[in-house]
Design goal:
Length: 210
């Protein structure tokens, strides 16, 4: 079997036969439903949750799950890629809706939720399974430019320091979002990140002497 990028699937539009459009559209819907269901189940029950818990939520049979994802690692990789894409796509939407500093803060809150509330995904990602090859590079390829644009826009207002890079911020938030013994509430990580975000603000300068 040839390797594909994590979570990728043949496009429904790739068939030249009009008669194939409906089955392919149905397959695409099933694939999307499985990824969304797995995203919910993994967050609730961890990546080792029973396949039936995922298929029941998606409204498909277990056979459909295994046709799309013969191995659990492929499904985990697809969920991770979906989450990365959603987080990256949120950047421009937030920039269009809010002032730069608020857009930056809201995006970092979303990113914190992404890296801090995915039970078992981080461990799976670092398991060495070939299904996850290239996923870290994809993570940086999608998220680093998004955050860089948000940081640059906020720095241009003079309200955020301009001496820290997007990759530094991505890594810092990921470290702050790691589970801490005795602190299982995601709000704990978000509070730590909020302190970090405050540290990105430009230090206030003392008023000049009268």
């Amino acid at each position: 079997m040839s390797e594909r990028a994590p979570g990728s699937a043949e496009s429904p539009a790739s068939s030249a036969n009009p008669g194939d459009r409906r089955p392919r559209a149905d397959a695409r819907r099933n694939l999307d439903a499985l990824i969304q269901a797995a995203r919910t189940v993994f967050a609730r029950s961890g990546v080792d949750a029973p396949a039936k818990e995922i298929t029941d939520l998606a409204g498909v049979g277990v056979g459909t799950l295994y046709r799309h994802f013969p191995r659990r690692a492929a499904l985990v990789a697809a969920v991770l890629q979906h989450e990365i894409d959603a987080c990256a796509d949120a950047g421009p939407a937030l920039s269009a809706a809010h002032e730069p500093v608020l857009a930056l803060a809201r995006w970092m809150d979303r990113y914190t939720a992404f890296v801090g509330t995915k039970r078992g995904l981080a461990g799976a990602l670092h398991s060495g399974d070939p299904a996850f090859e290239g996923l870290h590079a994809y993570f940086l390829q999608r998220l680093e430019p998004t955050l860089a644009e948000l940081l640059d826009a906020a720095a241009a207002t003079g309200e955020v320091r301009d001496d820290i890079g997007a990759r530094d911020v991505l890594h810092a938030i990921a470290l702050l979002s790691r589970p801490v013994p005795g602190e299982d509430d995601p709000a704990y990580s978000r509070r730590l990140v909020s302190v970090f975000v405050d540290g990105l603000r430009t230090p206030s300068r003392p008023a000049p002497p009268a």
